[in-house]
Amino acid sequence: EAQVTQNPRYLITVTGKKLTVTCSQNMNHEYMSWYRQDPGLGLRQIYYSMNVEVTDKGDVPEGYKVSRKEKRNFPLILESPSPNQTSLYFCASSPRQGFTYEQYFGPGTRLTVT
Amino acid sequence: RKEVEQDPGPFNVPEGATVAFNCTYSNSASQSFFWYRQDCRKEPKLLMSVYSSGNEDGRFTAQLNRASQYISLLIRDSKLSDSATYLCVVNKAHNTNAGKSTFGDGTTLTVKP
Fold first, then answer.
1. Are B50 and B22 in contact (CB under 8 A)?
2. How confident is the model over B39-61, as a mean pLDDT?
3. Distance between CA atoms of A106 and A33, rounded to whole angstroms?
4. Which of B42, B43, B98 has the CB atom closest to A99's CB atom?
5. 3 state SS of A103
6. CA angle, residues A37, A41, A42, in degrees to nearest 5
7. Which of B35, B50, B82, B99 is most buried, taking the most CB atoms under 10 A from its CB?
8. From CA A91, how far away is CA B105, in angstroms rounded?
9. How confident is the model at residue B100 (pLDDT cuts 50, 70, 90)?
10. Any alpha helices (H) in chain A, and if so which ranges?
């Protein structure tokens, strides 16, 4: 089944404890992206990757890191999480046809930082 | 002003009604446009791409007006199952920003029996 998977789905952690949220897609998509969704603020792009070893900042990259060493994986790293990073996180991928990015989303990771 | 703005809603309509949502964008160089549907904090799912010539998929019609910088979504013969939040998405075209996606905050639709 073609899909985007994220792990973990739910995570409660404490301030300052490094964590990684994994994202993997099995559709051979070039493009991958991370978003966070907060009430009243909609979905905001954190980082995106046009291809392996190519990553760029979205609108809210502060406090996050990403890497794209393989086409299928795009982990999101929080080196020192803070309570303002409590959010619902979505990973997405796209086959990227020209300038068109029809994105397919993972199920989301609900992160709480205390 | 936000880059992508949507009708705030909520829209409450009876079954069978026709409802339309608009979404305006501020960057005239925006290249591609989409409507997504999101149910109750689940993942967004692609509903339709929006083409310059307009496109239709069953009860759903999407239009793009580049001159006025807005896209629209029309839902005819609303069903209870159409109740969801509808998100418009705009992607940039410039090489330095290609890949940046901006989502609207969403419009909530509730279809009542």
1. no
2. 91
3. 10
4. B98
5. coil
6. 50
7. B99
8. 18
9. confident
10. none
